Amino acid sequence: MVVDCHFLALNNPEDILPYPRYKSGLLDEDKGYIKYGYPSTNYPILNMPYVLEDYEGNKLPPGHYQIILAPNRKMLYFVESNEIKASIPVSSLVEKMTSEEEERKRVREQEKLAKKYKNRPRKRPLDQTERKHQASMEAYIDDSNPKYYILHYKNGNIQAKGYILK
């Protein structure tokens, strides 16, 4: 007895299914290391307790703002919900360059970890450079002068300062 079997080879199962398919298990945004991990933003967050006002009478209310340094490094932007709410001119900018020795040291550490965990890649610790970058970000506003506020910005190796008249 000879049985003639025809197998249908499918590259994409959605070709025959009329409804979308979902993977079982947790979604990525429900996983703890994503939900409670470091924020994905590359800019520091400022918790501003003051009401800022310009010469035209426009007011910036207290709140949480991302502080973003403009690409030309001449302005600091107050950003809320991906909209620029205010801009402050940069009065001082310090950019620390990394030396070749520091870069070599970082590469050597990565190579040492790769060699140590060559046979056990799942045991290798995660790369911590992004966490170190997140930890080195900060923005705060200083109220020590009676005539103006001082906005301090630090993101990695870049530090900037701007002045806001009261």
Provide a descriptive summary of the structure in words.
- This protein is α+β, with helices and mostly antiparallel strands and 166 residues long.
- It is 17% helix and 34% strand.
- It has three helices and nine strands.
- A seven-stranded antiparallel beta sheet has the order 1-4-5-6-9-8-7. The protein has a two-stranded antiparallel ribbon with strand order 2-3.
- The radius of gyration is 26 Å and the shape is flat.
- It starts with 31 loop residues before the first helix and ends with a strand.
Quick structural overview:
This protein has 166 residues and is α+β, with helices and mostly antiparallel strands. Helix content is 17%, strand content 34%.
Which keywords apply here?
alpha+beta; seven-stranded antiparallel sheet; 17% helix
State the helical fraction: 10-25%
Distance between the termini: 96 Å
Q: How many DSSP H or I helices?
A: 3
Radius of gyration: 26 Å
Major sheet size, sense and barrel closure:
7 strands, antiparallel
Number of strands: 9
Give the helices and strands, then pairings.
Blueprint: H1 32-35, E1 45-48, E2 52-53, E3 59-60, E4 63-69, E5 75-80, E6 83-95, H2 100-116, H3 129-135, E7 137-142, E8 148-155, E9 158-165
Antiparallel strand pairs: 1-4, 2-3, 4-5, 5-6, 6-9, 7-8, 8-9
